[in-house]
């Protein structure tokens, strides 16, 4: 007998897909969500929250929601991303409220993976992100650690997925998404999805596991 999918809201891997803008003649500003056009709560934080999409279709971003906070690993200066790990580090960890993250992804295609977690696991993750938000322990570099590989390595440490070659399984957000879709099917982790703006061509497809009504 198959098990019911696990709908955890305590540990989520949240990733928005890479994209490229459609030609202007195909765009329609009316398709932008009202929250992006009228939400003034985060007006002073928009340069921090709405960063440019680096990488186009191969871009996007991966973050980890632990309880009621969402954490993401970022470059500090987009014009100075290192090829390999080096000092001084060009990296920073961001700490968002759920409301801030929802503002970030309001017009983005997003896939969420819902993982079970113990209190000890959540506490360990919270301690890791709290420390790294204050003082990053690793560099952001093209052939080193980036958002997808950081989440990938944390999931390995938690024992959620087996160790593998991150260049195959998490070199960019789309690769980690394929990896987690596979393990979600095996472990009965629920996957929820949300479509993005129709003014963009988005990487990947809208795919949930299993098909269910919780498509946001």
User: Could you tell me the strand content as a percent range?
Assistant: 15-25%
Q: Name the helix and strand elements from N-terminus to C-terminus, one letter apiece.
A: EEHHEEEHEHHHHEE
Average predicted local confidence, pLDDT = 82
Question: Major beta sheet, specifics?
Answer: 6 strands, antiparallel
Counted up, domains total 1
Tell me the overall shape. globular
* Range of helix content: 25-40%
Weakly predicted, low-confidence segments = 211-216
Q: What Rg do the Cα atoms give?
A: 17 Å
Number of helices: 7
Structural class: alpha+beta
Briefly say what this structure is.
The protein has helices at about 35-40, 45-50, 100-105, 120-135, 145-160, 165-170, 175-185; strands at about 10-15, 20, 60-65, 70-75, 90-95, 110-115, 190-195, 200. It has about 220 residues and is α+β, with helices and mostly antiparallel strands.
Provide key terms for this protein:
alpha+beta; six-stranded antiparallel beta sheet; 7 helices; 21% strand; globular; disordered C terminus
Could you please describe the fold and organization of this structure?
- By secondary structure, the chain is of the alpha+beta class.
- The chain has one domain.
- It is built from seven helices and eight strands; from the N terminus they run ββααβββαβααααββ.
- The model is unreliable at 211-216 (pLDDT under 50).
């Amino acid at each position: 007998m198959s098990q019911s999918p696990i709908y955890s809201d305590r540990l989520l891997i949240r990733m928005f897909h890479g994209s490229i803008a459609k030609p202007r003649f195909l765009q329609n500003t009316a398709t932008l969500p009202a929250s992006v056009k009228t939400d003034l709560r985060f007006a002073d934080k928009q340069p921090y929250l709405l960063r440019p999409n680096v990488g186009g279709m191969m871009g996007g971003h991966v973050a980890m929601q632990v309880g009621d906070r969402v954490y993401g690993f970022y470059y500090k200066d987009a014009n100075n991303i290192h090829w390999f790990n080096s000092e001084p580090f060009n990296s920073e960890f961001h700490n968002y409220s759920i409301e801030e993250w929802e503002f970030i992804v309001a017009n983005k295609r997003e896939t969420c993976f819902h993982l079970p977690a113990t209190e000890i696991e959540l506490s360990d993750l919270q301690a890791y992100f709290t420390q790294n938000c204050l003082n990053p322990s690793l560099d952001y570099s093209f052939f080193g650690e980036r958002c997808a590989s950081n989440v990938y390595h944390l999931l390995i440490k938690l024992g959620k997925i087996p160790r593998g070659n991150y260049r195959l399984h998490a070199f960019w957000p789309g690769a980690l998404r394929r990896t987690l879709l596979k393990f979600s099917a095996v472990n009965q982790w629920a996957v929820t999805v949300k479509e993005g703006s129709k003014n963009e061509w988005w990487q990947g497809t809208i795919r949930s596991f299993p098909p269910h009504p919780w498509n946001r």
